[in-house]
Design a protein that fits this description.
The chain is mainly α. The protein has nine helices and no strands. Helix 1 packs across helix 4.
């Protein structure tokens, strides 16, 4: 007889994602998560003290998938301009896929991100930190001109928000969006060149 895998925070988060996918943010409960895991809801609360903490953790896990994928670009060997283009395109692509591949789950996570402002703010800080590193590298190599790479990174992030802020998700599948992205990307890169 096989023994059940130990209950870990990761298993709880996986189950929570499935419950959210099935029931949506409004109807998903800790009891539903516990039932999916075959444990009592008290057992889930030993790992996550409140429903809000569990929802915050699952939101962070969802957002971290994007920032982890982009981190590989930051540490890659491309020249800074190519790296910046690749990073911004990667962010847009990740957001397009999240919205288009599973619209119901994307809508659920949109609700969760509204509930978890601190988690979202940390995510944005991580993303702008990655952009800062790319711009700093570009300045160091003489490719970019910026007296304040962190300020420039935030400006780039804000200037491209149409292509990564979830409030614009309905626009991401419209005709011409790729051309619009390419135009903003070219303008952004030209603005940073030394």
């Amino acid at each position: 007889m096989a023994t059940a895998a130990p209950l870990t925070p990761e298993r709880i988060l996986e189950a929570t994602e499935e419950v959210l996918r099935r029931h949506g943010a409004a109807k998903a409960t800790v009891v539903d998560v516990a039932r999916a895991l075959g444990v009592s809801h008290g057992t889930v609360y030993r790992h996550f003290r409140t429903k809000a903490e569990l929802r915050g953790a699952v939101t962070k896990r969802w957002l971290d998938r994007t920032s982890v994928a982009l981190a590989g670009i930051v540490t890659g060997s491309e020249p800074p301009e190519a790296k910046l283009r690749h990073w911004l395109a990667g962010l847009f692509d990740a957001k397009q896929h999240k919205a288009g591949d599973d619209p119901e789950l994307f809508a659920t996570y949109t609700v969760l991100t509204e509930e978890n402002g601190d988690v979202v703010n940390d995510h944005i800080a991580e993303l702008t930190g990655q952009l800062t590193a790319i711009i700093q590298q570009g300045v160091a190599e003489g490719d970019f001109a910026s007296p304040d790479p962190a300020l420039s990174a935030r400006a780039v992030f804000d200037a491209t928000s149409r292509f990564h802020d979830p409030c614009y998700a309905p626009h991401w599948s419209r005709p011409g969006i790729d051309e619009a992205f390419a135009a903003v990307l070219d303008l952004t890169v030209r603005g940073l060149r030394a």
